[in-house]
Amino acid sequence: MTPTGGRLPNLVYIGPDKAGSSWLHAALSLHPQVHLSEAKDLYFFDRFYSRGPQWYAEQFRGSGPQHLTVGEVCPDYLASPQAPSRMHEVIPEARLVATLRDPATRAFSSYLYMRKHGEGPDTFREALSTFPDLLEHGRYGTQLRRFRQFYGPDLLLVGLFDDLREDPQGFLDGLTDWMGLDRNQLPEGDLEAKLPASRARVPVVAWLVRRAANLVRTHDHATLVGRVKRSPLVHRLLYTPLGDQAPVLADEDRDLVRTALYEEVLEAERITGLPLRERWGWPVDQAAANPAGSADPQREES
């Protein structure tokens, strides 16, 4: 599908959330052969599909002939049941990228992000029961199976957040090699995490800012949201880094997530061929992942 007067992306980072998306957006934006939408998280293929392909193409209007890759970073697409078929309808030949992260640490990081914005209950255990997306966004087997119906392994690159964190430059080099682009050496400062764990200086203000950002997006001003989110001044005013005081995921909560998502990780291993349990330190059998007293928090609610 080719809209008039616009250029559709040939690269989309699909997720999951809390797995390096902000860093990837920043790193790829520095590459001279890459043009990304100024706003990270356009949410076109899940929230705003009714705006149509022409609107989507207009989000990349700054691209030029020197940009061999035009792309978007939106980590919510992986968990969206509608996104795979919609993407195949609009950009069937695009390359897609995912960076899987241990579902337990990913869910905990997502919880800390909620708390950073003045949302969610006081404990992670309660959040697992009251915010289903914390677990749903870690159902990698189901999610990858949906995408593989439309995109084969030649168009869907599945990497590991662990590799990105351990060797950011090496991860970026592998990605640009796969994309057929020149390698781009990043300055030392750009190899660091873009959004370290933080807490709101004034929680109610952070909550209001987040609500305002969502409202602005619905009125088609995602670019403005992107500029504000990337502003170091905004982050210094609203948040203070936790540093060594960052909360730690409790072993019993880790076990709870492992129990709920063990079969999903097995399926993701079958689809990708990656040794996920080994890399994440998960037990090799589900019985070991389900110690006495652990239960699926969603089932506890039913």
> How many beta-strand runs?
7
Number of DSSP helical runs: 16
CATH architectural label: 3-Layer(aba) Sandwich
CATH topology descriptor = Rossmann fold
Silhouette: globular
Would you summarize the structure shown here?
With 302 residues, the protein is an alpha/beta fold.
Draw up the topology in text.
Layout: E1 11-15, H1 21-29, E2 34-36, H2 52-58, E3 69-73, H3 83-90, E4 95-100, H4 103-116, H5 124-130, H6 133-136, H7 140-148, E5 156-160, H8 161-166, H9 168-179, E6 198-200, H10 203-218, H11 222-229, H12 232-238, E7 239-241, H13 251-272, H14 276-280, H15 286-289, H16 297-301
Parallel strand pairs: 1-3, 1-4, 2-3, 4-5
Antiparallel strand pairs: 6-7
Helix pairs in contact: 4-13, 7-13
